[in-house]
Specification:
Elements: H1 2-10, H2 28-45, H3 70-79, H4 85-91, H5 93-105, H6 117-121, H7 130-144, H8 155-160, H9 164-172
Length: 180
């Protein structure tokens, strides 16, 4: 079921860990971004993935797979504006970036986006290292359009998503150097 779900939802059969198979970072970053955007969409549309809106898993379907497009269907039904699942996932990127800018304004940087050394010593984490985790975070920042050194969203990313005023405010009002 996990491999079918991974293919259906993320386009790769190793997008999430499969029990009994070696853990890997392959295809995890795009999957994490999709899942993060799904979570933001659930918050924006105020539907609950636990109670009734089963986006990834459902005990009520014969294949136990949910409907990841439930958010776009809900949005379209309420607003009358038809949006595909991919359009809705993409529409969450400015929301994620706005939230990141709020965190940046409050002092959050890349150095805060990690785990303490104790986590990497746990038996359940021995399949990866702190160095490998940081390489994966580089991939995450690159895909998100954030500076890999600081974790601050790049001005070009913010402008592309209609958040130019946010970039200006970070620089002019809060003294944050927003990378190009």
């Amino acid at each position: 079921m996990l491999k079918r779900g991974n293919l259906k939802y993320f386009g790769a059969d190793d997008a999430t860990d499969i029990p009994g198979e070696p853990k890997t970072w392959n295809n995890k970053v795009p999957t994490a971004i999709i899942c993060q955007n799904l979570s933001v969409m659930m918050d924006c549309l105020t539907y609950c993935g636990w109670a009734n809106a089963y986006s990834l898993y459902s005990r009520y379907t014969s294949d136990y797979l949910g409907d990841p497009a439930i958010g776009s269907k809900l949005y379209s039904a309420i607003t009358g504006i038809n949006r595909t699942h991919d359009e809705m996932i993409d529409a969450m990127n400015p929301v994620v970036n706005l939230e990141r800018c709020i965190h940046v304004r409050e002092g959050r940087r890349r150095k805060h986006d990690t785990y303490n050394d104790t986590i990497f010593k746990l038996k359940s984490w021995q399949w990866t290292s702190k160095e490998e985790f940081h390489k994966v975070m580089d991939q995450y920042y690159t895909i998100r359009g954030w500076d890999s050194e600081t974790g601050i969203p790049k001005r070009s990313t913010l402008e592309k998503q209609g958040l130019e005023k946010i970039a200006d405010e970070l620089e002019n009002k809060y003294g944050v150097s927003v990378p190009a």
